[in-house]
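User: IclR family transcriptional regulator. Structure?
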Amino acid sequence: MAGNTGQPGASVISRALALLNAFDERHRSLTLTELAERADLPPATAYRQIKELVDGGALVRNSNGEYMIGRMIWNLGLLAPVQTDLREVASPFLHDIYAATRATVHLAVREGDRVLYIDRLSGHASVPVVSKVGSTLPMHCTGVGKVLLAHAPADVYERAMTTLTRVTPFTITQPLRLNEQLSRVRRDGYATTIEEMTLGACSVAVPITVGTTVIAALGIVVPSLKRDRPRLTAALHVAAQGISRSMTAT
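Assistant: Predicted structure:
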């Protein structure tokens, strides 16, 4: 929640940003009162600002009278150069992997201390997952997240180690154990999860690099990795290398 936005000196833009930042993964829809409280704004001020955001398409009001992020915000996000170029370049590779496996395929980047899903392919035969395009999840319990955390800046890495929340009974919450896993990710070039984010779902993911920098992660979610992990890892590496070459050429 933003502080001091209710003070007389706060600008219109800072108040609008505070209202938009009131939404997160756990707060996808909010009432007027909740928005005002989370943005630290007087209800009357929040109401006027929200009305303008709704009129402009930045917010929408659902049938329950609660407010949600509007499509305009997502459309603007897609204009970010790295994400736009990356999604366009990676798209055919994601489709190739999905066509060969019929499993959920993820393309993700790091956003702050979380993993942001910028593309996903899945079908009726895919394992159910909680990820959605545009959503964020913890890094320590997702395959793509572990790849990104293994190559994250030191301050991000340190914060993550102090906030290892348990999502399922199999989520790794011991810093030493996770640190060992992330060391193997850097050494072996791939990460795995076993029911750490969703029961019945396992994943394997690899990094996408440009030069020596890991810019994203490519992953796949399946019911089990006992038999197919080498095959899936090899396919992901081939796709990641293709995406890396294409990104370098753009």
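Confidence is low (pLDDT under 50) at residues 1-5. The CA atoms of residues 29 and 63 lie 11 Å apart.
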